[in-house]
């Protein structure tokens, strides 16, 4: 009996030792993705975490803060509720086998509270404005005045005097604008075709280094001339049209991977540098080419064209596709600008084609624009859409306003949307019909920060 008990004790000790050894050999948990990848600063976002090695007793942290509501669904899937926080943090899983290693796909971005102004127009020449600019009256638009297309290396001031470009930019800012300054590698040529001079280091070229130096010189000069003012920068407008081949996100990624560290070193806030993007295909290409961008990018400047985009082949379906594009981001997903929203109205363009998406009649254009604006409002209220820029007032079929001051059907829809936002008090608003589609209404706006203040910008497509 004594020997039997001794054998049982030895067997128990051996079993415990084997179990301990097996536990020690077990791999630490791993996180491969989270969804959604962003949420409000107050916390409370239900996040699904996928990976491996999730076992009983696993805990989740967002940065240094512990998550609540942790539920393990399987060894490869679990959910947790985000705590309050700010900025962008790693989501990690900890259990008896260790803590998950940081990877780009575990980054959760806390969305800032929505701030104003946020809505604006891609401006155009004041030559076409009528005697009464109704958009200016409502505070939603201002003339571009040629202030924002800079070639890398152009300065705001030389020899103590403002340059011609610097004077134009100063005038825009004095009129209350928040400029989005596009800095081109050689100035916007208006061409949309592969460009052999696109900045590169291939074959010993110095063009990439020269562009980065020029970008930093221009941006630093502009910021120095306007201390304390909000000025945003886009490195190259629609770069996908100039890469070789076109839509080569890797070639543009090479530029941004050199540019962001140089901007940081020059004390240019990276949160003010908006990297051009064109759907999730483009974003994933950039990440693959330059993995550092998976955490370096702090802002994106997207160009979907309304609710039915011309960029289907690049996985961008317009404004409604933005959450899907955002889900592919691991950096900058809480700081997005969307530009060139609108529809080519053939009624305004006198039957001439003006590119996709185009519609035959103004009523259809107004209806589609209304749907786009309401989608954008939701994204803005969530905190991650910083600004939405609608097409210019006088650009053919895209126009909101035509020579003489008359609003197009799209312009009337935009004005109705703006008036709906300006109504007070927000919580008491009745739905506001949008011109061009009487059955389509703007829902009441009761979210703090979503008042009728608008982005006054001179960005053009």
Outline the structure in words.
By secondary structure, this protein is of the alpha/beta class. The strands form 7 sheets. Strands 2, 4, 5, 8, 9 and 10 form a 6-stranded mixed β-sheet that branches. The N and C termini lie far apart (90 Å). Residues 18-24, 125-132, 141-145, 308-313 and 424-461 have low confidence and may be disordered. The longest helix has 24 residues, at 2-25. It has 10 helices and 24 strands. It is 28% helix and 21% strand. The relative contact order is 0.13.
Short description:
With 461 residues, this protein is of the alpha/beta class. It is built from 10 helices and 24 strands.
Low-confidence runs of at least 5 consecutive residues = 18-24, 125-132, 141-145, 308-313, 424-461
What would you say the CATH architecture of the largest domain is?
Alpha-Beta Barrel
- Count every helix, treating DSSP H or I runs of 4 or more residues as helices: 10
Give the CA-CA distance, first to last residue: 90 Å
Mean pLDDT: 81
Taking all Cα atoms into account, the compactness measure Rg is: 26 Å
Q: What is the fold-level CATH name, i.e. the topology of the largest domain?
A: TIM Barrel
Q: Strand content of the residues, in percent?
A: 15-25%
Q: Percent helix among the residues?
A: 25-40%
CATH class of the largest domain: Alpha Beta
Structural class: alpha/beta
Total number of domains: 2
């Amino acid at each position: 009996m004594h020997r039997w008990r001794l054998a049982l004790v030895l067997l128990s000790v051996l079993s415990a030792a084997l179990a301990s050894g097996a536990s020690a050999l077990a791999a630490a948990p791993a996180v491969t993705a989270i969804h959604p990848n962003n949420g409000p600063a107050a916390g409370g976002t239900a996040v699904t975490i996928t990976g491996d090695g999730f076992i009983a007793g696993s805990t989740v942290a967002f940065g240094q803060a512990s998550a609540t509501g942790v539920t393990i669904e399987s060894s490869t899937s679990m959910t947790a509720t985000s705590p309050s926080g700010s900025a962008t943090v790693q989501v990690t899983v900890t259990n008896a086998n260790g803590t998950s290693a940081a990877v780009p796909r575990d980054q959760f971005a806390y969305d800032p509270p929505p701030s104003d102004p946020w809505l604006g127009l891609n401006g155009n020449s004041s030559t076409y404005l009528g005697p009464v600019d109704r958009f200016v009256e409502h505070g939603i638009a201002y003339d571009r005045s040629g202030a924002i297309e800079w070639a890398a290396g152009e300065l705001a001031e030389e020899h103590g005097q403002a340059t011609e470009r610097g004077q134009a930019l100063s005038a825009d800012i004095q009129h209350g604008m928040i400029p989005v300054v596009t800095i081109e590698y050689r100035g916007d040529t208006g061409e949309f075709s592969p460009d052999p001079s696109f900045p590169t280091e291939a074959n010993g070229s110095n063009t990439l280094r020269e562009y980065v130096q020029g970008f930093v010189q221009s941006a630093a000069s502009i910021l120095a001339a306007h201390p304390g003012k909000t000025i945003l920068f886009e490195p190259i407008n629609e770069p996908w049209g100039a890469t070789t081949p076109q839509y080569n996100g890797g070639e543009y990624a090479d530029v941004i991977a050199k540019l962001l560290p140089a901007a940081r070193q020059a004390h240019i806030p990276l949160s003010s540098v908006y990297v051009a993007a064109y759907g999730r295909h483009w974003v994933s290409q950039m990440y693959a080419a330059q993995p550092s961008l998976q955490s370096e990018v702090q802002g994106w400047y997207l160009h979907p064209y309304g609710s039915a985009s011309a960029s289907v082949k690049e996985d961008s379906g317009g404004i409604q596709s933005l959450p899907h594009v955002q889900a592919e981001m691991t950096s900058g997903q809480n700081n997005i600008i969307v530009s060139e929203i609108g529809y080519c109205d053939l009624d305004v363009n006198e039957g001439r084609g003006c590119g996709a998406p185009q519609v035959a009649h103004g009523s259809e254009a107004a209806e589609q624009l209304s749907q786009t604006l309401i989608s954008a409002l939701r994204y803005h209220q969530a905190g991650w859409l910083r600004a939405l820029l609608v097409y210019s007032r006088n650009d053919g079929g895209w126009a909101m306003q035509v020579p003489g001051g008359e609003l197009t059907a799209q312009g009337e829809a935009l004005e109705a949307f703006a008036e709906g936002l300006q109504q007070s008090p927000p919580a008491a608003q009745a739905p506001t019909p949008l011109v061009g589609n009487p059955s389509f209404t703007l829902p009441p706006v009761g979210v703090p920060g979503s008042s009728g203040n608008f982005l006054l910008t001179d960005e053009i497509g």
